[in-house]
Amino acid sequence: MKKILVTGALGQIGSELTMGLREQYGNANVIASSRRTKEGHEELMESGIFEIVDVADGEKLSEVVKKHRIDTIVHLAAILSAVGEERPNQAWNVNMNGLYNVLEIAREEDCAVFTPSSIAVFGDSTPPDNTPQDTIQRPNTMYGVTKVAGELLCDYYYHRFGVDTRGVRFPGLISYKTLPGGGTTDYAVHIYYDALKHKRYTSFIGKGTKMDMMYMPDALDAIVQLLDADPSRLIHRNAFNVTAMSFDPEEIAASIRKKIPEFELDYDVDPVRQAIANSWPNSMDDTAAREEWDWNPKYDLDAMTEDMLAKLGEKLGL
Predict the structure, then answer these.
(1) Which of 126, 158, 186, 312 is the most buried if burial means most Cβ atoms within 10 Å?
(2) For the chain, which residues make up each domain, given as ranges?
(3) Cα gap 73→240, rounded to integer Å
(4) Phi and psi of 241, rounded to 5°?
């Protein structure tokens, strides 16, 4: 039975993953952590052990790992793309120094580590369509820089010290349970809220801008699958491309209109986030993940839209 520490447990991924892991491994075996408490997450904080930990504080992080005899760290604490451009110093400190602390503690305490990378590792010079697993990575955001460096650092700790490191390059993630926290792909979550509440949405991402996306249930499955994967099959380990669908704002609007015919979409493009989106792939090749640990997403765009509108409608009381 694993004893898991989840950092960034109150974030978009962590808040859902922590509860799922507790169902699988038991509340006592999944320790949630965040640098502060957060309103609206009382169930998570009260359903099992919750620790206040800033990942930049290596001493406190080490104390928690030893205290709970952790053998697996799921490291999700990070500053995302749009926020990272506003506060690049903070993005570097959290994303890089936090990861370094996690890996050092994992080396000392013989822990496995999962930490997600992102499509942000790619840039303008990367092939945009069916982006290969192994290709040029020259990002132009601080978030992307930290994610490339993070992949390399995890590779280093695996090859140099034998730390069992694993990770995926997530596309944009869409969830009805938790609002995102400052990413470029956030429009694909907000559009569903506004479709239900206002029957219209103003996109900050321009018409025709395709990006890889994934529904949160598939993202959670990817993490659990990779954690449980046979290590002898893993070649890429810390940087698996994973994807489920690729669409632009018009395509997601068309999917929504199948359920809400009167839905309207217009645009007020944010140049900062649009520039970031333009540097990212239109679609990724996830063959390596499919071959090395049997990755196979369940949701396409229409299946996600149907589930999002139904679940979000219940949540909003609409």
Answers:
(1) 186
(2) 4-171+215-241, 173-213+245-282+299-316
(3) 18
(4) -60, 130
> pTM (2 decimals)?
0.92
Give first-to-last CA distance, the chain, whole Å: 41
Pick the CATH number of 4-171+215-241 from 3.40.50.620, 3.40.50.720, 2.40.160.30, 2.170.150.70: 3.40.50.720
**In contact, 103 and 61? CB cutoff 8 Å:** no
Tell me if residue 201 is catalytic.
no
CA nearest to 248, candidates 271, 272, 269: 269
Q: Low-confidence residues of the chain, pLDDT below 50?
A: none
DSSP 257-279: HTT-TT-EEEE---HHHHHHHHT
Q: How does DSSP assign 52-73, residue by residue?
A: E--TT-HHHHHHHHHHTT--EE
**Cβ burial, residue 58 (10 Å; 0-12/13-18/19+):** middle
Going by their DSSP bridges, the two strands 50-52 and 30-34 should be labelled as parallel
Residues in the chain, overall count: 318
Query: Tens digit of pLDDT for each residue in 92-115?
Result: 999 999 999 999 999 999 999 999
Q: What is the pairing mode between strands 168-170 and 240-241?
A: parallel
Catalytic residue among 100, 143, 156, 299: 143
- The closest alpha carbon to 109, from 70, 148, 81, 150, belongs to 70
Instruction: Quote the CA–CA distance of 200 and 205 in Å, as a whole number.
Output: 15
